[in-house]
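Honest question from a wet-lab person: if I give you the sequences of every part of a complex, can you actually get the arrangement of the whole thing, not just the pieces? Trying it with mine:
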Amino acid sequence: MSGKATGPSDALRRSGAPDEADLARVRPDTSRLAGGPAAVLECFQRIPCDPCASSCRRGAIAPFADINDLPALDRGKCNGCGLCVARCPGLAIFVVDETFGPDEALIKMAYEFLPLPAKDQVVSALDREGRVVGRGRVVRVLKPRTREETAVVWVAVPKNLAWVARNIKVEEDRHG
Amino acid sequence: MRIIDHPILEFNKGRPVRFTFEGRELVGHEGEPIAAALHAAGVRVLRVSPRLHRPRGFFCAIGNCSSCLMVVDGTPNVRVCAEPLHEGMRVERQEGHGEIR
Amino acid sequence: MNSVEIAVVGAGPAGLSAALAAARQGATVALIERDERLGGQLIKQTHKFFGSGRQEAGTRGFVIARRLAAAVEEEPGIEVRLASTVLGYYSDKVLYLETPDGLSRLRAERTIMATGAAERMLPFAGNDRPGVYGAGAVQTLMNVHGVRPGKRVLMVGAGNIGLIVSYQLLQARVEVAAVVEAAPFIGGYLVHAAKIRRAGVPILTGHSVKEAVGEREVQGAVVWRLDEKWHPLPGTEEPVDCDVICLATGLTPLSELMWQAGCKMVYLPELGGHVAWHDEDMRTTVEDVYVAGDSSGVEEASAAMVGGRLAGLCAAASLGHDRGVADKKAAAREELAALRAGPTGERIRTGLAGLRKAGGLG
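Yes, you can. This is the full assembly:
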């Protein structure tokens, strides 16, 4: 069903950054967000790819009838664990937790660069176009067992950046 | 220019070996392509074209395109993007077609 | 003279898969590779592959290469010949090889040509300057030999290769000034584009490179805008600070050996240029010659692996090694059809329709 959804916006096809219409299609509703961490699959284009479905232990991502389909997520089954974040070959899955703290939201994101940040390190938060939009605090770093897997970083950001921050920049020289 | 640490890859290089480029002594790793060792040392101009005398570097890096022909130990037209580096090699820029001595 | 049932030329994703499939059917196979190691261009692919779990989706390319190479080395029916280049194929089914021990001949009942593809050049002033490199060369230098190609790169082409190599450059801590793409839209997968955008790399669609700057080596570039017919718009020139211009402007099949062997060649731009005409079993007009991988039509590596498997199965079956082959062939064809089914497979489908029109694909 989701495979027949509208295609990616022209803005995304021109620039590589999704626009509001793209994002509106993958954003959980307010009541789901109030229920804790939620996976957000920023996957807008039908390509032959299906590893997300088998990555979810709770069966929240339906098996693909056609491997070109867009993923279909059952938000009721998803508990925002983030297993799919490290598995997605396109690094297109994020987990957003708006209930993380009174002022902060938590974002779980894949991170394949060096240096990896350390827990409690303050990093720059970047938006989908790589602009610095604020500061983030690293809450947890899930280092892969081998270099061939993907690290996942949990970053706390101000609540107003929950739908903006999608990358981090780690300063090489830490001055606190 | 060498990558020391990488998020995904590990590089198992051969032992360091000495070689010369235009008489200047450089260090590379045993078995890596000559072009990789030169590039790591900042050398990008590998030869000069026969007719218009334009500087050339490598282009394909897999032994396909002949852009990187150099004189190695006196032998011209060696594709240095594919030729492994060994201790003591004498590498020179090739001018034009190169002469078979 | 040595002889073998099946010779496979090229040990990239298609050739490795073809050799494995043929040997597992019971054929004796010689796998001939001009490089000093197995894997072809797979060894420098650090991104995770797409496709379905059956084609190792989610696994990085170089890990797939390692697994395939290990399987080939464990397979007693396959004899591997590295650092060996096939110079010609002759009508008495004989291949001429240049090997580390000199020239030699090999008679093969069937030959599968999996010779891969080469980078396309782009015409612009100064495109012969040292510092203008093919995207494959940048990957080889960086991901195989651990040497950075430069400090700051202008990427030309926003197909999958241009997008993926841009990301790999960032991982190697090389700056990417921008990606320029002549077409109005990004050609590669948008998830790859999104990854480099999040890292701050601009993607300029409707732009191309006008010239390389620098007397002796690349010291910069000039880019300009194109109209919808891809004509440059004078007055829109902008300088780019870079020391490398990386061309990811497409691949064309390495088909010299097919031409030389006398295979009928068909020009199909969607498949990358001239490809050997082939039927549904990947067989060319030279009866004993099969093709697989990019040399049968430029496509993603996941498809090359399935196509190679199909060619290996069919070549082995034609020599009587046909145990269970009908089901295995059907499964491979089904996987190929699935990989090509979506909107991103349209170009390949158009190319294959052209081949079918030329009487190919059965």
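Two things worth pointing out. The interface with chain C takes residues 1-3, 6-9, 11, 13, 32-33, 35-36, 39-40, 44-46, 49, 54-65, 67, 81-82, 84 of chain B (CB under 8 Å). Helices of chain B lie at 34-40.
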